[in-house]
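Components:
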Amino acid sequence: MIRIAMLALALLASPAFAVEPDEVLSDPVLEGRAREISTNVRCVVCQNEPIDSSNAGVARDLRLLIRERLVAGDTDQEVYDFLVVRYGDFVLFKPPFKPSTYALWLGPFAILFIGGVAVAVSLARRPRKPATKILKLNAEEETALAKLMEQDKTI
Amino acid sequence: MKRLLFVLPLVVALIIGGFSLWGLSGGRDPSALPSMLISQPVPQLNLEAVEGVDLPGLSTDELTKMKGIKLLNIFASWCAPCRAEHPNLTRLAQEDGLTLVGVNYKDKPEDAAKWLAELGNPYEVIGSDYSGRAGIELGLSGLPETFIIDETGIIRYRLAGPLVGDGLRRFTEALNEVRK
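Structure:
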């Protein structure tokens, strides 16, 4: 009995989130958007963690701020812009596509293209395999050839 | 033409090697975040005075009216590096033409007052940022941070980290640049 109770308790336990209960909005739609945004925003203290799972004080402040802006009626893009103005593109896990990031976004495709061209060129240049056996014509081909030769003479 | 192709791997190796060397040298810190506020005016702040400290609070309007170069330092009594940089900050504040203003970040007023009484108070004004909201406006990532604001109220430099050692050297270089 106690084992079953323990198991039930273990199964009931949910993973701990950095988002604290007092932060959660009562509106599930807004809360969902807030969670979505905060998983895409980098914590500036612990730089490889999104603010959604970071326990840093600044991350908590930013989570609260995001919720505050959403409640005030901001669109997701406005919230991102608000953060980028203060912390730069660095806070976004997915960098925006703009002139300074062209090399980042297009570089891999450029390298793939150059590689593809190099492969195509080297394949095209490769000499064809020379025939190893000299095949003789069979009787039918011999007669066809003789016929062609005859025709040629008449011209 | 064919011979030139043989040099290609060497060229590629040199490019990659050069890039790696550049990446490893020169004290470059890849995790350092450039401040978005460089060449920008100071964001609108309206911070109340720290209770128990006999100094006015900090507002951007007042800050822009101040003459000369302003140093804006964000500190807290719970921040150990702030303690480390305090003597250097005090020395800088005594230099001609520099005004030191402070933002007390997420700190209990009584702790801040005690800290300043113990170490000395080099600040002209101190704004209290108990909520940490001003910190976000300033793009704060950790304590301490110090901004250089020029005569016209434009932010010219930000040092993330204490004003000691290498940080102090970089800060002094930037300060001399602003003074020109």
